Task: inverse folding
C-alpha cells in the first residue's frame, strides 16, 4: 500500500488558485522529490499536507488513514513530520532540549510529577535524554548537545531540524529545501545524511529542493509543479529529460 | 542537567540566606521598624515577579494585568477569612490561613483560565492591551461590589450597601469602595519566605520539566512547536493560569498583612502591573532568580534613598533604574562583564595551580 496518497488537492487564496488538482502517490520507503519554479506552490502543498492550511478540495491519505482537514498536531501524531524552508528551531533551548521537545508525545509524565520531581520524572527524563542523544549521534551533533540551538552553525541547524522531526517518530518525513544556503560540500554531506536516515529509520521522505544535483542524486521519483498544477510525474531520469520540464523549469 | 539543579539550589539558597540574615538582624535589634514593615511586601513583590516571569519570560506573552489576579486572590481569601472568623470562630488561625491561601490561589487560577480563553488567542501588543483592560475591569468591579451574608444566605449588589436588603448591616463583608475591614493579620515574614520558596520550587521545576520545555518551545517558535505535536493552547493556558494562581498567593499575603483591604489604583491598578513588569524586565525575561533579585532591590531602593536624599529620591531611583538596565542588558556592558569574569577566573585558577605546585 502507498504511504501517502493525495487526490485532487486544491486550495485558493482569494482569486489565486495556489494549488490546483494536485495528486501524488508515494510508495512506502520511497525518496520522493517535489520540484518546480519559485511560486509554483510547493511549500503550499507541504502546508496542506501538514494541516497548516485546510484544502478546499481533495483527499489526503496517510498509510490508509484519511487525514484531510485534521489539525497540525493530529497530523503529526498520525505520522507526518516536517522541516521548514526558513529554519524554525527553538532558539533559546539547547540542542538536546530541541530534540526532547520532539520526543514530547512519546514520553509522558504529568505536570504534578514534573513539579514534585516524583521518581517517574527522573526515569522518563533519563530515557528521553538517552533517546535524544542517540538521535544527535546519528546527526553528528552529540558534542553540541548543551549549546543553544541559535549558536549552531547553519548546516548543523538544518541537521538539528531533521533530528527534531525524526524524534516525533514519523512515518513520512517532509523536507522543505534542506540544502538551501549550503555550499557544495555541505550539500554532499546532507545527501549522505538523507540517504542514511532513509535506510536507518526505514523512512519515506518527500522533499522540496532546487539543487538539481541533490535531486538527481538521491530522489527516485519526482513531481514537477508549475503554477500550482502537476506538470510531470514519474521516475527522476524520465522527468528530468521531459521537454516540458526543461522548458518550464530547468531551462534549455 | 546537574547545572540546572545547582542553579535552582543557588536561587533557593539565596532566599534562605536572606531570611537567616534578616532574622539575625531582628534578633540583635539592628533593623528599623520601617524595614520590618517592608519585609512582607518584599516577599509579595518577589512572588509577583517570579510568577509574572512565567508568563512574560517563559511563555513569552506580555501580560499587563497581573495585579488583577493578585486582586482576586486578595479579596477571595480575605472574604473567606472573614467569613470563617464570623461563623466558625473556633477555627485555628493557622488552618484558616492555610485554607485562605489555597482559596486565593484557586480563585485567581480559575480567573486566569477564564480570562486566558479569550486573551490567549491574541498575540504581542494586542494581548498586552487586553490583559491591561481585564486587570482594570477586575479592580473596578471589586471596587463597586457589595457582598454580605446573613441567615437568608449570601447577598450581593453592584449598587450600594442598602441594595443588599440585609437585616443586620454588621454582616456586610465587602463594602464597595471601602473594601474589607478587619481581615486577620496572619501574614508574617516567615510565611512570606515559605510561600516564596514554594513559588520558586513550582516555577523552577515546571520550567525544567517536559511541560516547561513545551511552553518554551511555543515561545521560541509556535509553528514549529505545532509541527512536532505540541498542543499550543493547552500549554499557553497552563502557564497563564499557574502564573495567575501564584499572583493570587501574593494577593493572599497582601490581604492578610493589612487590616483594611481596598481595591485602589495604587495597589491593584495598572501601575502595579507595570511595576511587576519592570522587575521582570530588569531581572531578565526568563531569568527567575534575576527577577526575584530585581524585585527586592527595586523595592528596597526607594526606602534606602529616603534617608540619604529625600528630596530627589524618585529622580535618583529613575536614574538608577536606567543605569541598572544598561549594565544588565547593553551589549557593550555584557562584553565588559564577560571580560572581567574571565580575568578573575583565570587569576583564580592560576593561584590554585601555583598553590598545588
Result:
Amino acid at each position: 500500500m502507498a504511504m501517502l496518497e493525495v487526490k485532487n488537492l486544491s486550495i485558493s487564496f482569494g482569486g489565486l488558485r495556489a494549488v490546483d488538482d494536485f495528486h501524488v502517490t508515494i510508495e512506502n520507503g520511497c525518496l520522493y522529490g517535489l520540484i518546480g519554479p519559485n511560486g509554483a506552490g510547493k511549500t503550499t502543498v507541504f502546508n496542506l499536507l501538514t494541516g497548516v492550511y485546510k484544502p478546499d478540495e481533495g483527499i489526503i491519505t496517510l498509510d490508509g488513514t484519511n487525514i484531510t482537514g485534521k489539525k497540525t498536531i493530529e497530523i503529526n501524531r498520525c505520522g507526518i513530520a516536517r522541516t521548514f524552508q526558513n529554519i524554525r528551531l527553538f532558539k533559546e533551548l539547547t540542542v538536546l532540549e530541541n530534540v526532547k521537545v520532539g520526543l514530547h508525545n512519546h514520553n509522558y509524565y504529568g505536570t504534578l510529577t514534573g513539579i514534585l520531581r516524583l521518581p517517574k520524572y527522573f526515569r522518563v527524563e533519563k530515557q528521553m535524554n538517552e533517546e535524544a542523544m542517540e538521535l544527535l549521534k546519528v546527526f553528528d551533533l552529540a558534542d553540541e548537545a548543551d549549546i543553544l540551538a541559535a549558536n549552531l552553525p547553519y548546516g548543523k541547524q538544518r541537521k538539528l531540524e531533521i533530528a527534531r522531526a525524526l524524534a516525533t517518530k514519523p512515518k513520512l518525513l517532509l523536507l522543505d529545501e534542506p540544502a538551501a544556503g549550503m555550499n557544495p560540500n555541505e550539500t554532499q554531506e546532507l545527501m549522505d545524511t538523507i540517504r542514511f536516515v532513509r535506510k536507518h529509520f526505514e523512512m519515506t521522505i518527500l522533499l522540496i529542493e532546487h539543487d538539481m544535483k541533490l535531486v538527481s542524486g538521491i530522489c527516485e521519483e519526482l513531481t514537477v509543479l508549475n503554477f500550482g498544477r502537476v506538470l510531470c510525474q514519474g521516475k527522476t531520469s524520465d522527468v528530468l529529460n521531459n521537454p516540458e520540464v526543461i522548458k518550464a523549469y530547468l531551462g534549455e | 542537567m546537574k547545572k540546572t539543579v545547582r542553579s535552582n539550589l543557588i536561587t533557593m539558597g539565596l532566599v534562605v540566606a536572606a531570611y537567616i540574615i534578616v532574622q539575625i538582624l531582628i534578633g540583635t535589634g539592628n533593623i528599623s521598624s520601617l524595614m520590618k514593615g517592608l519585609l512582607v511586601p518584599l516577599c509579595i513583590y518577589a512572588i509577583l515577579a517570579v510568577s509574572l516571569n512565567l508568563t512574560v519570560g517563559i511563555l513569552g506573552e506580555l501580560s499587563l494585568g497581573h495585579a488583577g489576579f493578585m486582586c482576586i486572590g486578595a479579596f477571595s481569601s480575605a472574604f473567606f477569612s472573614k467569613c470563617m472568623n464570623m461563623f466558625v470562630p473556633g477555627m485555628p488561625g493557622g488552618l484558616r490561613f492555610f485554607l485562605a491561601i489555597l482559596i486565593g490561589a484557586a480563585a485567581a487560577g480559575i480567573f486566569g483560565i477564564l480570562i486566558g480563553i479569550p486573551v490567549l488567542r491574541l498575540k504581542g501588543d494586542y494581548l498586552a492591551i487586553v490583559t491591561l483592560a481585564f486587570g482594570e475591569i477586575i479592580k473596578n468591579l471589586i471596587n463597586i461590589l457589595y457582598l454580605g451574608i446573613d441567615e437568608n444566605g449570601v447577598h450581593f449588589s453592584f449598587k450600594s450597601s442598602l441594595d443588599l436588603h440585609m437585616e443586620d448591616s454588621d454582616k456586610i463583608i465587602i463594602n464597595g469602595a471601602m473594601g474589607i475591614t478587619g481581615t486577620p493579620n496572619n501574614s508574617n515574614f516567615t510565611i512570606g519566605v515559605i510561600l516564596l520558596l514554594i513559588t520558586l520550587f513550582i516555577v523552577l521545576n515546571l520550567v525544567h520539566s517536559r511541560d516547561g520545555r513545551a511552553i518554551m518551545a511555543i515561545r521560541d517558535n509556535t509553528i514549529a512547536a505545532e509541527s512536532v505535536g505540541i498542543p499550543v493552547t493547552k500549554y499557553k493556558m497552563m502557564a497563564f493560569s499557574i502564573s495567575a494562581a501564584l499572583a493570587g498567593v501574593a494577593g493572599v499575603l497582601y490581604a492578610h498583612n493589612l487590616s483594611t483591604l481596598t481595591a485602589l489604583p495604587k495597589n491593584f491598578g495598572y501601575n502595579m502591573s507595570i511595576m511587576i513588569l519592570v522587575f521582570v524586565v530588569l531581572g531578565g525575561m526568563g531569568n527567575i532568580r534575576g527577577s526575584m533579585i530585581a524585585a527586592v532591590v527595586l523595592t528596597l531602593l526607594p526606602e534606602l534613598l529616603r534617608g540619604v536624599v529625600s528630596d530627589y529620591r524618585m529622580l535618583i531611583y529613575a536614574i538608577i533604574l536606567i543605569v541598572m538596565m544598561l549594565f544588565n542588558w547593553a551589549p557593550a556592558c555584557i562584553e565588559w562583564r564577560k571580560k572581567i569574569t574571565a580575568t578573575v577566573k583565570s587569576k583564580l585558577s592560576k593561584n590554585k595551580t601555583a598553590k598545588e605546585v
In short: Residues 2-289 of chain B form one domain. Chain B touches chain A at residues 1, 201-202, 205-206, 209-214, 216-217, 219-221, 223-232, 238, 286 (CB under 8 Å). The longest strand of chain B covers residues 146-150. The beta strands of chain B are 146-150, 153-157, 172-175, 180-181, 260-261.
